[in-house]
Amino acid sequence: MSPSISLSLLHNLESSLSSHDFSLLSLLFLLSGAFAIGFWAWRRFAEKKNSPPLPPGPAGLPLVGNLPFLDPELHTYFATLAMTYGPILKLQLGKKLGIVVTSPATAREVLKDNDVTFANRDVPIAGRAAFYGGSDILWNPYGPEWRMFRKVCGLKMLSNHTLDSVYGLRRREVRRTVGYFLLRAGSPVNVGEQMFLTVLNVITSMLWGGTAQGEERESLGADFRQAVSNLTKLLGRPNISDFYPSLARFDLQGIERQTKGLAKRFDGIFQKVIDQRLKMQRENGSESLDGGEENKDFLQFLLKLKDEEDAQTQLTMTGLKALLMDMLIGGTDSSSNTIEFAMAEIINKPKVLRKIQQELETVVGKGNVVEESHIPKLPYLQAVMKESLRLHPPVPLLIPHCPSATCTVGGYTVPKGSRVFINVWAIHRDPLIWRDQLEFDPERFLHSEGNYNEHNFNYFPFGSGRRMCVGVLMAERMVLYSLATLLHSFDWKLPEGEKMDLTEQFGIVMKKKKPLMAVPLPRFSDSRLYE
User: In sequence order, what are the residues at sequence separation of 6 or more whose Cβ sits closer than 8 angstroms to the Cβ of residue 137?
Assistant: First the structure.
């Protein structure tokens, strides 16, 4: 068929269609579109109608929801609400929906059954301000960069092999603390402050080889601990900017401004040690980064990793600093607070103190210094640590999770993007799980299964699943070795006329509201045991 004949047929076909036919086609098109939209809306309505409801929760006010009713001690406030509304409840926090989980079964659904869905964090503005935009292992979204950070920390910094290799650092700093307490024997000492500095020196030695000594040790410990405490307090404080994003630019509570000020202080410390290390590298060439084992530390490893061009996920200088911040903040405050709470509970229970010391005398001996190799042979001391973590978990609500998709937990809908709190503090004190739940009784861990692992949701002080605390091994070693040494070397009592106050102060990291001031009394006359 020739082109001229084809064009003629097409022209005749167009001419045969009347305006009436075009109107009919247009009407059919509109009806089809309306039907498609109606069917989609019906499907959405049917899905919504058939999906589980949102969890129950207290009534709120227009616009603000439940924000005006939040108690500063969120862990106890949420536990009280759970007694009324059940193991999963909702709170309208301005524009943000909060979901509170308060039972082993619902915690398992979040942290195990739907682990990938809940693997992201709901990053507060303070978290972004403090941790380099949230580009660290704590706040980073689940993905390649987070997996790289986790692998770096787990394999290089916090593995059993690495921790074994730096035992000398832990021993040196704990022995220095023993010497500090000996010089102040018979006088009250701030236990938490000194243990914070001990852990700080261990971690900075592992990171870049720096420790504080002499007068600097005492002043730095107080100042640095206050800075860390202020930062964790800001991270745990409800922030209007998080609940009303449109108001974030005004920073009405000043939380972002204060956090940036503290973060700048830490960044100055990091930049100083990085500049010093890079200067050494320029002056000494590659040997400064490839020297002997005695010169290696975590910063050296990270600087080498940053320069690897063939790495699947590139480590940036920002990411490097964010990792240093994680190790410094996450490792110091939680471990020292755990030691302080454990010491307070032990001093408050003289029978527990005597039993620990009897175990230490049997395993270590009165004429010997405690070594980490003794720890596996001290089951009662391990039970004491576990019981202290049960009553006083370091992060009482864990770090909030944020589902990447809408899902069902406990028979209720948990919407995508909500802020999910897991009240591990309340689970650890649930009378349906624990006998005499408020009593400090280490014996319970000698006769029952109380280890922290991925299958036990009655007891998980370090979280569970993909976002479980990466520093568990380090914390366990530091806490047990410190407690064993302090309790073997000294008897402890409160200052005359003082009563033990075990009140907690809520924060993203929980601390003792009133610092533990206790009096160390040397147990041995041989001065070599205090060197």
Answer: 146, 149, 150, 153, 322, 323, 326, 470
- Would the annotation count 153 as a binding residue? no
| 223, containing H or E segment | helix 214-236
SS3 at position 244: coil
Q: How far is the CA of 484 from the CAs of 176, 425, 451, 480, in angstroms?
A: 15, 25, 20, 6
First-residue to last-residue Cα distance in the chain: 107
Question: Tens digits of per-residue pLDDT, 322-361?
Answer: 999 998 888 898 999 999 999 999 999 999 999 999 999 9
Residue bearing tokens 């720890």: 375
Q: Using alpha carbons, select from 381, 360, 346 the residue that is nearest to residue 524.
A: 360
- Summarised one tens digit per residue, pLDDT across range 130-168 is 999 998 999 999 999 999 999 888 877 889 998 999 999
- Looking up tokens 């909030």 gives 400
**Strands 96-101 and 419-422, sheet pairing:** parallel
Least confident of 161-165, 411-415, 483-487, 491-495: 161-165
Q: Which amino acid is at 290?
A: D
Backbone angles phi, psi at 468, to 5 degrees: -60, 145
Question: For residue 32, what are the CA distances in angstroms to 28, 40, 338?
Answer: 6, 12, 66
Helix (H, G, I), strand (E, B) or coil at 219: helix
Provide the whole-model pTM. Answer: 0.87
- Cβ burial of 198 (10 Å; 0-12, 13-18, 19+) is buried
Q: How many residues does the chain have?
A: 531
Fold of 125-391+463-530: Cytochrome p450 (1.10.630)
Domain parsing of the chain, residue ranges: 125-391+463-530
Cα(257)–Cα(130) distance, integer angstroms:
10
Torsional class of 127: left (φ above 0), alpha (ψ -120 to 50), beta (otherwise): alpha
